[in-house]
Structure formats: C-alpha cells, structure tokens
Design goal:
heterodimer; A: alpha+beta; 20 strands; 20% helix; B: alpha+beta; three-stranded antiparallel β-sheet; 39% strand
Chain lengths: 374, 123
Amino acid sequence: MAETTDIADLHGLPLDAWHRSRGARMVPFARYSMPVQYEGVIAEHLWTRESAGLFDVSHMGQLTFHGDGVDRALETLLPGELQLLKDGRLRYSMLLAEDGGILDDLMATRRGDHFYVVVNGATKYGDIEQFERRMPKGIVIDHMKEQALLALQGPRAAEILENLAAGASELSFMQGGAFTIGGTHAWISRSGYTGEDGFEISVSATAAEGVADALTAHEAVKPIGLGARDSLRLEAGLPLYGHDLDTTTTPVMADLQFAIGKRRRAEGGFAGAMRILAELENGAVQKRVGLAVEGRQPVREGALILDAEGEEVGRVTSGTFSPSLQRPIAMGYVATALGAPGTELKLEQRGKLFQATVVPMPFVPHRYHRKQGA
Amino acid sequence: MSLHFTGEHEWIRVEGDVGIVGISNHAQEALGDIVFAEVPESGRSLNKGDEAAVVESVKAASDIYAPVAGEVIEANGALADDPALINRDPEGQGWFFKMRIADKAELDGLMDEAAYREWVKTL
C-alpha cells in the first residue's frame, strides 16, 4: 500500500491534525498523508461491524456535472441507467474506456438539476481529464476541492447520526439528501464501502473537524483507518480500483454486470458497449471470484492461481486475513470455466503453494438498510 | 545470559551456545496486528542473514533473518494458534525459535540492548 512518494509531495487532508491528535499512524496514499490505523487494524475492523466507525475519505474526488442533458451525457461514458435515476438516488457505476476497460468505479447521484459523482482519490485527476475530454460539449464539471467526505459505518451509525442530522435515519440504502449537521450544511447518503449500514457525509472542509468531533463524542464511534477500510471492503466482496479493477478488466469480467442497466443492454450507447454486450452474451474470458484460502497465512495480490495440473489460470488481486472470519480470504481473476463456486484451485506465492476454493461473495453478508419492498 | 539486537529488529538471547530468537517491541509495533507466523523446522541449518521465519500482519508479510549462523533446535509452537502473542509479548513469550549457535564470535557484530534502544529512538 505504501507508495514511493516524497513526504514533501504529500497533501494533508482537512482532518490531518485531527487524525494525528488521535494517535493515527499516517502513511502516503493517493498523494495524501492518510491514517492507516489508530488503535489497530483488527480492533477497528471489528468495532465497525459491531458498533460504528468513522472514516475520513476526503481524498476522494467529489465532482458535480451541470448542463442540459447531463444524464444522457454521462451515459456515454458510464454503463448505468442514469436517465431514469430518481432525484436523490445513488447508482454505483464505472467510467469506461473506449475499449470497455474500467478507468474508475464511482457513485453517481442525481441531485436536482445536476449530478454529484464521487470518484477514487488516486484516479480523480485522470478521471476529470477523461470527462473533460470525452463528454459532450456544454457540460460543466466542478471539482469540489474545498469539500470533505466522512463515512460513518456500522450497526449503530443510523441511531448516532439521527441525533446530529435529524431525518438521516429515514434514508434508504442508496438514497441521499440535504441535511444540517451541527449547524452546517451536509449532503448525506446512505451508502459505503464496508457492507454495513452506514452513511457518507459531504461537508465543507472547514466544517469537517466539528462534524468529526460531534460524531466521535459518542462512545459508540471510533475513528477507523485505511487498514481496516481495506479488510472491511474485502470481506464485503467490494473491488478496489487499481487492484481488483483496472483498464484491462471490463464490467463483465469484474462481475459487475448488475451495474449495466437493462435499457443500456438493449440500446448500448456507452463506451465499449460492443465488447461489453458481446461479453454479456457469450461470457468473458476471465471472471473475478472470491477465494477461501486454506490455513492461516494470507495470500495477497500478485499470487498466481493454478489449476490442478499446476497451469497458471489466473491471479490474485486482493487478499488479507479476515478479522471477522478469522481466516485468509482473497479476490482474483480466473479463467471463467474455473470460476464456479466450489472449484478447487491452488495459489502460488513466493514459491509456496496454498489450497483455495472459489466461494461466492460477499464473504461476510451485507447489512444494507433497504426499505420494505425495495 | 546476553541479549543482542540486529539492524532488522531481531533479538537473540544467548545462554551458553543456545540462542532464542524473536522480534523486538519496535518491530511488532511497526507491523501492527500479526495474523500469522511461520517458524523454521528443527534441524534446519541457518547462515547469518538467511530468511529464517515469516511474520504476517493484516497488511503485509515480513521476513525474519537469522541473527547468527547455527542450527534450529526448537520452534515456538504457541505461535500457530496465537500469532498475536508476538504483539503482546514480543521479547518474551512471543519468541520464534531456538538455535544452537555455530560461532559465538558472530554475536560481536550485533548491538547490545542499550545501543539498540538508542538507535530505535532515531528512526
């Protein structure tokens, strides 16, 4: 995870001093100095699943898109159903290259007369450049550089947030709205990257410390670092761009077909549609799968996946020791024919062989707050 | 009994020609939560600087090197089921292996405890 970045070149998050005052160990990530842990990765991970964790994700890019036909314009680069997306609703999607490869994954929200899009921190400048170059003319893109983004995740998140932002607990999963939190404007969505019920809170950078203080004043809330963020999302089966998703993976390969809207499958009209629709029809060569690894030793990104004959059939793209399951888990790409749950495979890491089984994801069940009938 | 440290944050506690090897408190703190440790088999011959053991945290794997040459005579069986013992007691119960030291003169190249603790402060 550590990058070869000069310390002097790193940016500070709006909450930089706040993190350090809480004993955070800071590491370089996405050109920022970011907290990897406070108390410890495993303790923070388990706390999030049992109580509520507060994550600073202000490194991510918060963008707005304004203009006539902005939904149709975004649809040229994203494969999701955006024209029919209702006001205040979020959609997980991907920025696609012309060959159907994934340039980034993101969340897009219809907010009244514009779209609000959150992209990954490490890729945000590249994404903005892509949008500016490839979107139809007339769309105005704003990068909200003075905006912070916090995530409150866990079974107690709703109860705690409701006390500070009245009405927030009424949101359903993948819905957002404008709220007041501690006297400041916030856009709050019921969404996250942990598999737990939770919220993402967008506030101005100057208000971030006050909001973070207000949330952590509650004894059920602890600050959580990048280490636990990674183990939580992996348990939830959620891909990490740059590792499980990259320009060589398509949405079909990545097992993200759910994000391709039904109308979009029939009509196409998005970057890489020809290839992606063909893959939907005929299957893709490789697919992203979950792996349950035997033993206790983690098998990580870069390990090879071998079939029973020892032939290379894929690669591991993420792996860790699962604090919730107390065993190693991994994600990787394997030849589609070998991707069915129950398939026994071998993994090779630093000359050592491991037994693994393809398993469905998520590894730990999601606990999203979906309203009745949703 | 003498206690020596390497520049890779291993320690070796020597009594007679037997040395007990582990990682320092600084090392376990830097690693974070340890989830796995692989220890060498009894009978294995090690040269100074050889990869002797592996320790894994949630985020990364780290190699443990033999501080001096010798033969492994015992590995710490407690680490298989409780790798977090290394975090809790890195310089005591969290030892990795015991070895019969081939040449005690190799200990001269290591830091004594005072020198190691001073050096760690500078990191």
